[in-house]
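> call design_seq(struct)
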């Protein structure tokens, strides 16, 4: 009765495969070679683990020339990883490099394309405080004031998705909710376009720019230095 469920738990629970899934949870496609390096395993070992994840429909693969690119297509897979991380002990660090990456991931990162981490939580809280979002038990809703603000920063608010519910995600480093889904993704893309935030050289991590600090203060009354 529970065989398929147990099989997926075993697949996700393996250290190498879990590392790969976490690295793919940004929503980006990554080649097998990059995933092998990120998981600190040999290419052949990485291919074996990736094949198992593809077979279980946890990720998909696209071939481009000699390279194979892997991606998480279903955001529910990311939700499952986040849920497991919330009930797990905090990540331990074995090196300065790992410590730096953990700090950057905790501060600001992408989660299936949208902003997450400390800044993701603070950003969501600022939207609520400014009455741009309204909170219900299981989701957020964009207010009329919020739609006007999105239009102000250059996001089209005439699309149907802006009348829909905005999912809540439990942030695995902050243990608090941040907004998710298509609207959160559009806002994150716009903030990158406006140079408020920028992609880091470290996979999944984001950097806040000086322009972004000023913009958050002006638009949302967020004091980043606090």
């Amino acid at each position: 009765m529970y065989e398929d469920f147990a099989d997926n738990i075993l697949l996700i629970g393996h250290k190498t495969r879990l590392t790969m899934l976490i690295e793919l949870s940004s929503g980006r496609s990554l080649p097998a070679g990059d995933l092998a390096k990120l998981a600190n395993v040999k290419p052949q070992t990485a291919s074996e683990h990736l094949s198992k994840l593809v077979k279980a429909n946890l990720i998909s693969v696209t071939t481009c020339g000699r390279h194979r690119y892997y991606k998480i297509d279903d955001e529910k897979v990311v939700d499952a990883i986040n849920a497991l991380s919330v009930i797990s002990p905090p990540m331990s660090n074995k090196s300065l490099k790992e410590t730096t990456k953990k700090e950057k991931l905790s501060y600001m990162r992408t989660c299936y394309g949208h902003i997450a981490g400390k800044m993701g939580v603070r950003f969501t809280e600022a939207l609520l405080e400014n009455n741009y979002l309204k909170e219900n038990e299981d989701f957020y809703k964009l207010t009329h004031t919020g739609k006007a603000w999105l239009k102000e920063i250059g996001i089209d608010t005439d699309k149907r998705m802006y009348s829909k519910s905005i999912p809540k995600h439990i942030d695995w480093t902050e243990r608090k909710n941040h907004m998710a889904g298509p609207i959160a993704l559009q806002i994150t893309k716009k903030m990158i376009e406006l140079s408020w935030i920028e992609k880091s050289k470290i996979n999944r991590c984001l950097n806040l720019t000086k322009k972004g600090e000023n913009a958050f203060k002006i638009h949302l009354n967020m004091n980043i230095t606090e």
